[in-house]
Amino acid sequence: MTLSTGLNHIATANELTKIVNENENVMVCCGRMGPMCIPVYEVMEEIQDKYSHVKFFDMAFDSPEAHIIRNLPECKTFAGLPFTVYYKNGKVAKATSSIQNMDQVTSILDKELNS
Amino acid sequence: MENYFDVIVIGGGPAGLTSGIYLSRAKLKTLILNEGAAGGQMVLTHEVANYPGIESISGYQLSRNMRKQAEKFGCLVKSNIKVTNLSLSNDVKSVEINGSETFFAKSIILATGGKSRTIGAKGEETFKGKGISYCATCDGDFFQDKNIIVIGGGNSALEEAVSLTKFASSVTVVHQFDHFQAFESAVSEAKANPKINFIMESEIQEFIGNEKLEKAIIKNMRTGEISTKEIDGAFILIGYVPNTESLKGIIELNNKNEIITNDLMETNISGVFAAGDSRAKRYRQITTSVSDGTIAALSAADYIEKQKEEILV
Ligand SMILES: Cc1cc2nc3c(=O)[nH]c(=O)nc-3n(C[C@H](O)[C@H](O)[C@H](O)COP(=O)(O)OP(=O)(O)OC[C@H]3O[C@@H](n4cnc5c(N)ncnc54)[C@H](O)[C@@H]3O)c2cc1C
After folding, report:
1. Ligand 1, CB within 6 Å, residue ranges
2. Intervals of chain B under pLDDT 50
3. A84 touches chain B (CB under 8 A)
4. Which of A33, B67, B224, B252 has a Cα at 20 to 30 A from A84?
């Protein structure tokens, strides 16, 4: 199950764990090809080159493997797609739910995942 | 000359993208500057079933198709930018983006569209994505067997209230007037649904919760009575506002902050045109935006042609 975005996809929970452990800064947008998610993927696609110290991925919310994101304590109150998680040194640095714009995403990246 | 264009289109929804298609096909050097994702409100539409010639398509796919078509003819599209300065009064107009780069053009088309209206109640921003949603199709399934409210009284509020009964155990429509603004068919369908009840002549004063939304404080506008309703979710579906905040004092707007144009999409400033939902008009649809975008592009092309002739005379 993959999303038709221009981002790299994460298919399994193991893959996500490996990526998070092997990279200092990771941003994962877990969603669907729906109205609230597409703008977030597009922001990520747009800034991939500028934030070369961050690895950007998407993950399909409806895949059973996405339990790893859906069940994060940081996401337990979320009730809006997508669930976007920012990881620093293997740990969740920030998580947001629902649509986010360029300013919101970059301000989190600048604050939480600076190089 | 890299930053000089014949036309700059501000806004990349259906109106702006259509202008881009027409202008670049006419070999005019065209730039579309868009604040969010290209496609505008179209991207927010799960299924577009009223675009002539296409039985059904996702808003996302239609947006992609329009963008690709504009780019194929040479139109440059920049998304996720912020317009930080706009100067329209001279013959050469200028648009600064992200506080750093400036583009110049002979003509400008304003196609900034609109966005969902927020109610501005206390707690609304805090619980966005944690119980408060503006898209029933996107977030409805988070509210399986839950109690929710829908705020609004137009067609989309009542239609979405009905669709949310697929998930929720109860849906309460909270509306500020004693009657609905929706079509009779939408009203009767909602009234006939046993899961839906109504709180009329009332407004939300505050959303309350700990980590997620738990309660809404509701005020009856006629009696002044305040009540508290325990809820798991709130869908705010109260229409739209035009994206013209940054145009105030620059271009003529009406009392609803919509851009005033004539039939040729001309604004009060020579060489500046407007198209789509940001304009004062009655019907706001993809087709009407596409039509506006076409007219604005043809008017802008005509304006540029006449300018050339004036210089030659
Ligand atoms: C949930 C939903 C469902 C809908 N369903 C349908 C449907 O089924 N069929 C139908 O015909 N219509 C539908 N509509 C209406 C339709 O989407 C709109 O009428 C249409 O998109 C308006 O087009 P537009 O180009 O004028 O503006 P928009 O689509 O609003 O696009 C404007 C663009 O301009 C950008 N912008 C705003 N300000 C600036 C600025 N200062 N600088 C740069 N860019 C800026 C915005 O980010 C946006 O991308 C729906 C709308 C919604 C919200």
Report:
1. B 10-16, 33-36, 40-42, 44-45, 48, 50, 83, 111-114, 243, 246, 276-277, 284-287, 289
2. none
3. no
4. B67
Contact B38 A42 (CB under 8 A): yes
Strands (E), B169-299: 170-174, 196-199, 202-209, 213-220, 226-230, 233-236, 240-242, 272-274
pTM of the model: 0.86
Ligand 1 atom nearest to B287, measured from its CA? 11
pLDDT tens column, B238-293: 988 999 999 999 999 999 999 999 999 999 999 999 999 999 998 899 999 999 99
Q: Which residues contact A50 (CB under 8 A, 6 or more apart)?
A: none
The tokens describing B110, both together, are: 């304003």
HSE value, Cβ hemisphere, 13 Å, CA-based, for B156: 14
Residue B10 near residue B33, CB atoms below 8 Å: yes
Which is nearest to B39 in space by CA: B7, B9, B16?
Answer: B16
**What pLDDT score was predicted for residue A2?**
80
Interhelix angle B286-312/B14-25, nearest 10 degrees: 40
Residues facing residue B78 across a β-bridge: B33
What's the confidence (pLDDT) of residue A60? Answer: 96
What dihedral do alpha carbons B110, B111, B116, B121 form, nearest 10°? -10
Residue B190: helix, strand or coil by DSSP? helix
